[in-house]
Design goal:
Layout lengths: L1 H22 L3 E6 L2 H16 L4 E8 L1 H9 L5 E5 L3 H4 L11 H16 L1 E3 L9 E6 H7 L4 H9 L6 E3 L1 H5 L2 H9 L8 E3 L5 H10 L6 E5 L4 H4 L2 E3 L12 E6 H6 L2 H11 L3 H12 L5 H11 L10
Parallel strand pairs: 1-2, 6-7, 6-8
Antiparallel strand pairs: 3-10, 4-10, 5-8, 5-9
Length: about 300
Amino acid sequence: MAQVLKAVTVAMLLLTGAVASAAAPPVVVSSKLSSESAMLGQMIRLLLEDRGIPTLDRMTLGATPVVRKALLAGEIDLYVEYTGNAGFFFNRANDPAWKDLQLGYELGSKLDLAANRIVWLAPAPASNAWALAVRRDIATRHRLVTMSDFARWVREGGAAKLACSAEFANGGTLRSLERTYSFHLAPRQKIVLAGGETAATIGAAAARTNGINTAMVYGTDGGIVAADLVLLEDDKKDQPVYAPVPIVREAVLRARPEIADIVRPLLASFTRESLQALNARVQIDGESAEEVAGDYLRSKGLIGPARNR
């Protein structure tokens, strides 16, 4: 009799969960304005749709404050954030945890859940932090692989010339790198570009504009490989880790708990190099974020006929 009751109870729970899931409204998937954010958002949206979870597309909603506010207000349900940004969300930018992917993920996840009932899903093992990249011929000639190598080159009188934004040059990032790695770029070695988008800094280094051979970049920029630049490793971990991490309202995840398991293998599949290549298709080749997203999901067997159903 006990076995029969147990079986009935399990069946009822499964039925209740199925009914609740079926009755749940579509998941509103959003993104920031960047091409990477939109591409990752489209991947998640397409993946959820493939698993039978209806979605609404609210991609490229706005800059970080806009998308964050929409999530907290319940206007959207899920978007891809970056782990290091939690330092600014919670006024803890100087916490050393942000310089470690796992520690930063754990701290940000804990803070966001407690304060806002926002759940952080599994992050990608890659970082989109600010970094420096140098022309490959320069890197090869002077054996530049890490920021420590770059600092040694500059101290020895190397003719480094950096293209960067005003924010990077004056907001503390460059000064932090200079302190950590014990080097200094003189004013004549820095060209601050109006707007300061990384596409412009990468283009200036590739074209050798005004002798520029070093560019301010983000770690997963699509233009790095296309411009034949070498990304310098932050070997002393000066910069926070900005790992892509899907974040979702707890109420939505409670209604559709399968989302966490659906999204996990997608994020685990990324590397810095694979994100650079994917971003290049959007940023350099002009393909749409949704097209690139679908191609990637099919290539990994995550959707479509390649996936065992």
